[in-house]
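Minimal example, chain plus (2Z)-2-iminopentanedioic acid.
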Amino acid sequence: MAINLNQVDEKKLHKAKEYIASLRNPNCAEDDVFFQAMEEVLLSIAPLYLSDHKYSENSIVQRLIKPDRIIKFKVEWLDRNNKIQVNTGYRVQFNNALGAYKGGLRFHPSVNEGVLKFLGFEQILKNALTGLPLGGGKGGSDFDPKGKTDFEVMSFCSAFMRELHKYIGPRMDVPAGDIGVGAREIGYLYGEYKKITSQYEGVLTGKPFFFGGSLMRPQATGYGVIYLTEKMLELEGKDSLEGKICTVSGSGNVALHAIEKLYHIGAIPVTCSDSKGAIYDPRGVDLDLLKELKLEKRASLEEYSKFHKEAQYIPVSKYPKGGHAVWHIECYAAFPCATQNELTEVDAKALIKNGCISVSEGANMPSTPEAISAIQGAGLCFAPAKAANAGGVAVSGFEMSQNAQMIRWTFDKVEEELKNTMVHICTDIAQTAHDYGVPGNYVDGANISGFKRVADAMIAEGI
Ligand code: NDP
Ligand code: 2IT
């Protein structure tokens, strides 16, 4: 049943908004990001929820916003001096209405329960949008891989898996990578899982290719963002990215592959960033150098300007007040690919003023609510994370299929399926936005489409 989101009883909507606001826990700052993610979704779906009573009759909102369980554990590991170190590990198993819990692991000092609840909640709807049988979850640790030796990372990963293995399985919960967790970490985690269980099974995705990983999984998220953006621009009657200046933030897995795909299609990505600063290279960033610095040497971006004198390095201390340097550079399209809340209202206004026409979220929730409002208010195209970055988890789903069947897809096959998936997600959310009376609003389109799939499954499965 499609309803016009603009024609819902104002009084009921007001009450719904009061209920949503009451979900914020003022005594727990950690939960702010979780509330931010939840509020956006609940505001999008409120008119649908109020009009189609099956959702309230089945208490869907109350059930959807509570994780099935949060597993929290101590991780004790040995550092290079044989000293015992202690971190906290987590797995948030949020919702498995559509399939096994699925979502990445983040290793970063900022990880806490609130961050993982926000990521797990987003993951439920993102995974639903892929059309694959995947539930939503997320996990990780406050462990910081930066500055650690390979041996220390291995020691930590083994200790982490010694506890996590009790709660995961190829039909139960399948973790993958996220910030601070790439092929190296997945390799160590998988090795330990196999030692403990003696099972060769697809319990993790993002594995290196030679022991069961899917071709293209490293590229999938970044490439997927660009495929979806190209489709969105086509649907919205805008010029393609070919020949256009683009700005990208981050310099990790997602950012590097978004930059790579931008080059493939003839666009000119001129920026990237890390947690210490940003690079602006007006001729287009040097991707080979970036890969060497970030993937091989794990160095700071400051090194980049030693090789390219004409490039500008802007340290975080020089960023505009309340903003981020990358978004103040003129561009046709912008791609935030680093972390949450890295694109503020100040940044959004700069993008709009400089003539940017499109923003696509490669990272999870990189734009603040105020930034999204400004971007949509000014009529820019806006592709929300749960749609734009779904290519990573989609190829993880393909990896699970390949592992279950003991087969390997070719690079071309994975790429074709990824492209189809991203185009399908884009047309689906555009159509949903249209059907519900908010054409061009890809945020509402994604939230409603994902919500309906999960909620309908929850209703069909009962309690
Ligand atoms: P990586 O660890 O490979 O890279 C993260 C990048 O973001 C680095 O450049 C890092 O800089 C920067 N960064 C991390 N935290 C901060 C911070 N607090 N402030 C400023 N910069 C920061 O991670 P990914 O590329 O995998 O992930 C990037 C984003 O994409 C995340 O939001 C993640 O959740 C999302 N994502 C990832 C997917 C995947 O398949 N990997 C799939 C879908 C979404 P530095 O090196 O200095 O730390
Ligand atoms: O945020 C994400 O979608 C990911 N980090 C990837 C999850 C996955 O299971 O591949």
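The mean pLDDT is 97. The pocket of (2Z)-2-iminopentanedioic acid (ligand 2) is lined by residues 102-104, 123, 126, 176, 178, 205, 364, 392-393, 396 (CB under 6 Å).
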